[in-house]
């Protein structure tokens, strides 16, 4: 349990630190246009990658062999 807690604290700290570095680069540095362009590029790329993955899964899914059969004896 101690290892999980340490990992959680590390992840939390890294995320907070990364946010401040990102905010600095976006708001106060001369790199602002490039940081904004890369951020949008990564967001759009991530969304399109997820949609492409869904398309790949749908295209390569094996058809199921479960079929509904009716018998002549059924009351319906």
Quickly list its features.
76 residues, mainly alpha, 2 helices, single chain
Task: Explain the layout of strands and helices.
Elements: H1 2-27, H2 32-60
Helix pairs in contact: 1-2
Outline type: elongated
Provide the gyration radius in Å. Answer: 25 Å
Unreliable stretches? none
For the terminal residues, how far apart are their CA atoms?
59 Å
Order of helices and strands: HH
Helical proportion, percent range: over 70%
Structural class: mainly alpha
By DSSP (H or I, 4+ residues per run), the number of helices equals 2
> What portion of the residues fall into strands of 2 or more residues?
under 5%
How many domains in all? 1
The count of β-strands is 0
Write structural notes for this entry:
- The protein has helices at 2-27, 32-60.
- With 76 residues, it is mainly α.
- The protein has one domain (2-58).
- α1 packs across α2 (32-60).
- The radius of gyration is 25 Å and the shape is elongated.
- The model has no long low-confidence stretch (mean pLDDT 90).
Describe what is shown at a glance:
72% of the residues lie in helices and 0% in strands. The chain is mainly alpha-helical and 76 residues long. It has one domain.
